[in-house]
């Protein structure tokens, strides 16, 4: 059933699974689709004033929705708008992220070219501080315009006010308060060359040393190939891409916890085995969730049910076509328990869970 509430499209008992990359989850009591900032704000205010639970959906690439669905209003942000002035890029929240990256590469601007192929909308990027292959959006974001539900007004936050950290931000820390409307980036004109390549795998694929620059188009195409090889570029025919990308974040451990973890690794795998270790700030070390999952016995393709680990990448949990959300969560819980038992490290899910928990 559908009707029009002003200019905003309204659907009742609306399926949400088609709006997510997992293709999982039950219906929402009501689904609104907003195409302007004013419509977004009006829909949010209506929900808040009536005390109706609100779920904001962008590209749906980072959502795990329960099988029973969402008892409230789901708001799909479908706003459009791209403004490129010199090296400054401003995107409406509903803009498709992969298209925006392609546009900056075509314009000869560096800074987000290694974030090519990441599914979802522009408005989601500051929430998660999206990053891959040595780049994070926090390095180029200068401002985020949001609707502050607590204050009941639109505000613009400078990058230093966004509290960006690894896969985290002020917006993720307080998800009930802010709805992203627009994001502004400051990019670099390096004469058609990329930002310095930081990620070792990307540098190897490009045939350069870390720190070198390459033509922008080469950087983008190489990242797309690397991602596709891991099932991280959306393809309706490939069930390895029916996922949320990396399901778990890379653990960041204190020096004391990392020492204990390292001891567990040697005890389990032998004295000559060293776990991945990357500096993560004073007294902290980041290790690899994919390495942990694989070494705990959950290899590519693990599982016999309708939800399995990707055949291309151990960090991706996938819907093989007829899974339920509960199937997915059962697999995720098995992986978390197995890694904790093997190495004493508790993995944290990266996707946002709705009406369910891990």
From TrEMBL:
FAD-binding PCMH-type domain sequence ranges: 24-190
EC numbers, comma separated: 1.3.1.98
Gene3D superfamilies: 3.30.465.10, UDP-N-acetylenolpyruvoylglucosamine reductase, C-terminal domain, Uridine Diphospho-n-acetylenolpyruvylglucosamine Reductase, domain 2
Gene Ontology CC terms: cytosol
Catalytic activity reported: UDP-N-acetyl-alpha-D-muramate + NADP(+) = UDP-N-acetyl-3-O-(1-carboxyvinyl)-alpha-D-glucosamine + NADPH + H(+)
UniProt-annotated location(s): Cytoplasm
GO BP annotation list: cell division; cell wall organization; peptidoglycan biosynthetic process; regulation of cell shape
Molecular function terms from GO: FAD binding; UDP-N-acetylmuramate dehydrogenase activity
Pathway(s) annotated for this protein in UniProt: Cell wall biogenesis; peptidoglycan biosynthesis
Role of this protein: Cell wall formation.
HAMAP family hit by this protein: MurB
Name of the protein in its database record: UDP-N-acetylenolpyruvoylglucosamine reductase
Organism encoding this protein: Streptomyces dangxiongensis
Source lineage: Bacteria, Bacillati, Actinomycetota, Actinomycetes, Kitasatosporales
